[in-house]
Amino acid sequence: MDKKKNISMAVIKRLPKYYRYLKELLKNDVERISSKELGEKIGFTASQIRQDLNNFGDFGQQGYGYNVKDLYNQIGLILGLDREYTAVLIGAGNIGQAIANYRFNENGLNIAAIFDANPKLIGIKIRDVEIKDIDYLDSFLAENNIDMGIICVPRNNAQAVCDKLVKGGVKGIWNFAPVDLVIPEDVMVENVHLSESLLTLIYLLHDQEN
Amino acid sequence: MDKKKNISMAVIKRLPKYYRYLKELLKNDVERISSKELGEKIGFTASQIRQDLNNFGDFGQQGYGYNVKDLYNQIGLILGLDREYTAVLIGAGNIGQAIANYRFNENGLNIAAIFDANPKLIGIKIRDVEIKDIDYLDSFLAENNIDMGIICVPRNNAQAVCDKLVKGGVKGIWNFAPVDLVIPEDVMVENVHLSESLLTLIYLLHDQEN
């Protein structure tokens, strides 16, 4: 799998999109598709698709195109979806509850526990997962093999929560707090910065008006 | 304001980050900052910061750096935050409720109405905004000046909702549904694709393990 190394983030960020479109094709019983057709659906050029996928191996066949099911499965493997990932979610406020309720298990995610500091929330269940007292986070991480921490706490608490998660051995952080976290190099982070997304849209709207 | 045209999306996406850091500096009573110091905080190089900001005008002064308050206000103007933007939110499920509850009004967003098709939700208020029957969306858009539509409906309904919003004169779409919407060129769209964000993190985690 050496080929996987040094692949640009731009390519990596496009993989889930391929995966989503291929899943849709599979649902619609499409058996094969050319890079041109796939490109038209996704809005990429055929050559971009061929280039992207060549990073990971030899898919597709001249004159035939891609076998949809094979390519879907292969991209699933590349994405690492051949196993389940366990997560703890910290912060059961609005966003935290929405994430806990979202059906991410399709994507191989298992939220093993939810933590919050608010006594009113502790004990409540979201999709059969009980909200625990944040004071038990350290011991929970020590006793369970957790891959990922999902941070949904207010900005001022985010770094402290992140530090606990990293200390507890978590290797990935999905961060919804509007801060840039300081983390060791071997811990991966993916940010969802909603305010920044909104400000980008407002900029585009405003720019369009002028 | 001709200088603003043809600015790359990469630069545009960095503006909200500058804005967030400058706000933080302002809160901490920092009056001025050099591009080097600002760069160290944000994780960009000083020259990248100077380049980015030069797209929009002459900020900062050799040997003095940037006046934090001025730069904050200027970037606010560039982002279009000198006026309020009105939005309708469609789909009061988990994500929709979280977004409706989020305090985006700091960013100049006013959610004027929320719509859903579920009779159990219609009539409920979220932060004083009542959830209305989706059947009234068209007439609401006709009677009110709405800038933006926030789409939080399931994937299968997203395009139909988007078409209604566009027909109703909305000029920006903030899309949380896991689909790529087909929209006219003069309507701006910003996607928050949570599953794709998660899959990116899973890829990075998986890649790290190998």
Automatic annotation (TrEMBL), chains A, B:
It comes from the Bacteria. The keyword Magnesium does not apply. It is found in: Cytoplasm. GO terms for cellular component: cytoplasm. GO terms for molecular function: DNA binding; DNA-binding transcription factor activity. Keywords: Cytoplasm, DNA-binding, NAD, Repressor, Transcription, Transcription regulation. Residues 80-180 form the CoA-binding domain. NAD(+) binds at residues 91-96. One of its GO terms (biological process) is response to redox state. Pfam families: CoA_binding, Put_DNA-bind_N. InterPro entries: CoA-bd, NAD(P)-bd_dom_sf, Rex_actinobacterial-type, Rex_DNA-bd_C_dom, Tscrpt_rep_Rex, WH-like_DNA-bd_sf, WH_DNA-bd_sf. Gene3D superfamilies: NAD(P)-binding Rossmann-like Domain (3.40.50.720), Winged helix-like DNA-binding domain superfamily/Winged helix DNA-binding domain (1.10.10.10). Residues 17-56 bind DNA. Belongs to the transcriptional regulatory Rex family. HAMAP family: Rex (MF_01131). Modulates transcription in response to changes in cellular NADH/NAD(+) redox state. Homodimer. This is Redox-sensing transcriptional repressor Rex. The lineage of its organism: Bacteria, Bacillati, Bacillota, Clostridia, Eubacteriales.
